[in-house]
Write a structure and sequence with these properties.
The chain has about 450 residues and is an alpha/beta fold. The chain has 3 domains: about 210 residues, NADH-ubiquinone oxidoreductase 51kDa subunit (Rossmann fold, 3-Layer(aba) Sandwich); about 110 residues, Ubiquitin-like (UB roll), CATH 3.10.20; about 100 residues, Up-down Bundle (de novo design (two linked rop proteins)), CATH 1.20.1440.230. The chain has 18 helices and 13 strands. The longest helix has 21 residues.
């Protein structure tokens, strides 16, 4: 892991001097050449390449993309839809926004290859409501692509036709959940659907088979089609192939977005060598590695166990700095790679106030459909809000944990887990701060406390 050079594939042209987001610049740099070749291949071949590549979804769950495509009901006789999940709403995550702003044609090309592979005739890009500039850029790029024959009728001179439409959401975190997104796209309130029976691969948009993939995921499809699945799988590490884009924010000297081969850089290398380490005179205290819903890690803790390396099982003994930045390794230490949003906190952060901020967000964003989530997220917010307003109690840590523990597994979608994990992990890692909060924090006036939540 000595080589800390970025392996920019998706971000190859991001921030490149002289590179623009219009189609002329994209074509000059080899754009749409892969699409031209792909539409001359058999769709099943492309699906097989994606399966061989081992590509895992970059939106949060890390589910294998080829497996998702393989679940699509192709015998129903109904049209198959593809939805690009551009509702990038996980706090700490901002990679997809840069792809859409600076290289939208890359997304369009990856989407069109995916549509051809799955016999999709109509696709949608569902973009978050707070990204109006991104929506305008995508509309312009799609108009350029249609005029050039890369989107619309008779793609690249073939008999294959497929159009893409941009749909703007209203700015709801729950629309990042695929069935909530589908409900919103149909013009309804974004209440997630019960699975089963409403698995998108069978009963998705308009009750038709539907594929929902993240922006970054679909961009990778272009390079899988170009390199071949086996060659692509050589990038990264086994079961964590390709590159990952990390969005680093918080208390580091060089926050920003970085693209590395998955699993070939550790947390310590990313934060210290790439991002310049902590701010002067400070020390790292905690890090959330996959967006705000991922469980927090505490610097100074160690994680021990066994992991598979090749055909062997080997012991590992890691501090936070030693953890490889891939889905499996982060899962082994009790958190997740999620959306790649790395949120760094140093020793100036009060963890009660940090959790109060997170709880306020999740309480606001719950769709309210499931009682455990609706009431549980609200009560976690009420408790931490009361604490930072100067009315903390010594039993609040136990109360917060009790509320959080009663939500997961009792809701229709994963929002229940998403709102619970921060509280569970903050209490587990920093329980003393919560228990000692009444003594360590003087009461503050409500007006002052508003800045903390």
């Amino acid at each position: 892991m000595a080589d800390l050079e970025q392996r920019r594939i998706i971000f190859k042209h991001i921030d490149e001097p002289g590179y623009s987001n219009d189609i002329a610049c994209y074509v000059r740099n080899g754009g749409y050449e892969v699409l031209k070749k792909s539409v001359l291949r058999k769709p099943d071949e492309l699906i097989d390449e994606v399966k061989k590549s081992g590509l895992r979804g970059r939106g949060g769950a890390g589910f294998p993309c080829g497996v998702k495509w393989g679940l699509v009901d192709r015998k129903s006789g109904k049209p198959i839809y593809l939805i690009v999940n551009a509702d990038e709403s996980e706090p700490g995550t901002f990679k997809d926004r840069y792809i859409m702003h600076q290289d939208p044609h890359q997304l369009i090309e990856g989407t069109m290859i995916s549509c051809f592979a799955n016999n999709v005739k109509q696709a949608y890009i569902y973009i978050r409501g707070e990204m109006p500039h991104g929506a305008r850029i995508l509309e312009k790029a799609l108009a350029e692509a249609r005029a050039a024959g890369f989107v619309g009728k008779n793609i690249c001179g073939t008999t294959y036709s497929c159009d893409i439409f941009v749909h703007r959401g209203a700015g709801a975190y729950i629309c990042g959940e695929e069935t909530g997104l589908i409900e919103s796209l149909e013009g309804k309130r974004a209440n997630p659907r019960i699975k089963p029976p409403y698995f998108p691969a069978v009963l998705g948009l308009y009750q038709c088979p539907t594929i929902v993939n993240n922006v970054e995921t679909l961009c990778h499809v272009k390079y899988i089609a170009e390199f071949g699945g086996i060659e692509y799988a050589k990038i990264g590490t086994p079961n964590n192939t390709g590159t990952r884009i990390f969005c680093v924010s918080g208390h580091v000297q060089r926050p920003g977005y970085y693209e590395f081969e998955a699993g070939k850089i550790t947390m310590g290398q990313l934060l210290n060598d790439v991002c310049g380490g902590p701010l002067p005179g400070r020390k790292f205290k905690a890090v959330i590695p996959g967006g705000s819903s991922a469980k927090i890690l505490r610097f100074g803790e160690r994680y021990k166990g066994k992991r598979k390396v090749g055909a062997d099982m080997v012991d590992y003994d890691w501090g936070v700095e030693d953890v490889p930045m891939d889905f499996d390794s982060l899962g082994m230490v009790g958190t997740m790679g999620g959306s790649g949003g790395v949120i760094v906190m140093d020793d100036t952060v009060n963890m009660v106030e940090a959790l109060a901020n997170i709880n306020a967000f999740y309480s606001h964003e719950s769709c309210g459909q499931c009682t455990p989530c609706r009431e549980g997220s609200l009560w976690m917010k009420k408790i931490t809000t009361r604490m930072v307003h100067g009315n903390a109690r010594s039993e609040d840590a136990a109360l917060l944990k009790s509320v959080a523990d009663q939500i997961p597994g009792r809701t229709i979608c994963a929002f229940g887990e998403a709102c619970s994990w921060p509280t569970q992990s903050f209490i587990a890692k920093f329980g003393d701060e919560f228990k000692n909060y009444p003594e360590s924090k003087k009461a503050v006036k409500p007006a002052e406390a508003q800045t903390l939540i």
